[in-house]
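Following up on my earlier message about pyridoxal-5'-phosphate. Here are the inputs again, as you asked, copied directly from the submission form:
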Amino acid sequence: MQYDFDTRLHRLGTRSEKWDEMETRYGVPATGDPAGIAMWVADMDFKSPPAVNEAVAAMAQTGLYGYPGAWHDHDEALTSWLSRRHGWNIHPQWVLRMPNVVTALHLIIQAFTGPDEGIIVQPPVYPPFLLAPQNNGRKVLENPLRREEGPDGPRFVMDYDNLEEQCRNGGKVLILCSPHNPGGRVWHKEELSRLAEICLKYDVLIVSDEIHHDLVYEGHTHTMLATIAPEIADRTITCISATKTFNLAGSMLGLAVVQNAGLRARLQKTMHAAGLFDPSAFGLAMSIAAYNHGDAWRKELLTYLDGNRQLVQQQLGTVNGIEPMRPEATYLTWIDFEKTGLPKDAIIRKLQQEARLALNHGATFGTGGELCMRLNFACPRSVLQEALDRIINVFSG
Ligand SMILES: Cc1ncc(COP(=O)(O)O)c(C=O)c1O
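Thanks, got it. Here's what our run produced:
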């Protein structure tokens, strides 16, 4: 391997949400014996690709941090990446730049729905999908995912009948998570087409959050929703960024790609009303470097993450009552503790107080998450092994 994912980095004291807020949020101290391990918020305990560090260093060398402008090189880097990796040929003018994807979700809701109107989400799902409608006084219409036995164990599938019902119940916008966080599904083209067909039938706007689109394991193919058919592209806003793939969440750049000019103008108006004009200069520089020079790093990262994914599966799969869902994408494993027979508080106590691990609580992902936890395995393998040993220890016997 050309890149190093094994070295343990000391993130405590680096203004890291994941490590420096672990104790206040989960009561798990990062120091002590044993020291706590942060396995919650979705960033990685790895350094970003060297090209990104070089781009930041080059900026620092100029000492110039003024307003960014004429970011054509970002247009080029992005369009080339999407075309090369995803077969999606976009025009740069379709792209709206925001501080992050979660900002985009909030602004889309403001732009396209009114008070009390319905936003369809498919829980369990990334918590801001539930919070963004609530923060804006909109109604959350749930279309809970169903669990079924797949070729590699339990997996989520969509409930199309209930989706149609929620469209009839007044859903105006559907927020899709593709690939899915926390379940790790890479939705098949047929699944996406069926979902889109229903949304189109009821004139529901689709917001397709594809931020995990570059973290897909071998044997699975990510389909960008907007590439399926022109009429789907016309009713879809695609949210992406380089931040998840290359571990740049602090660089504050999220993108909404909107092909339909009318939808784009409306969203842009809402952005301007919120005072959002210039993107982050650091975000631009970092993602240009990542898109142009980061693919070899990404490939090695995926190989490393795949090893971690297998480890989680093999080891937790042997513990009575614990069911990890094998992700097809992302560095997150959704773990179901229902069959341990323990109530939620006992599961959390075992993980946090006995094992000293901070995992995301399943309940924050909405319906279906109550007795589950989400584990972030993007860390050096030795750290992961230590965490798995602790889980096995506190749940065995
Ligand atoms: C599905 C999904 N969307 C958005 C985000 C966050 O993106 P951003 O940092 O750009 O708001 C995450 C982070 O985990 C995510 O999983």
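One observation from looking it over: The radius of gyration is 21 Å. Hope that helps, and feel free to reply on this thread.
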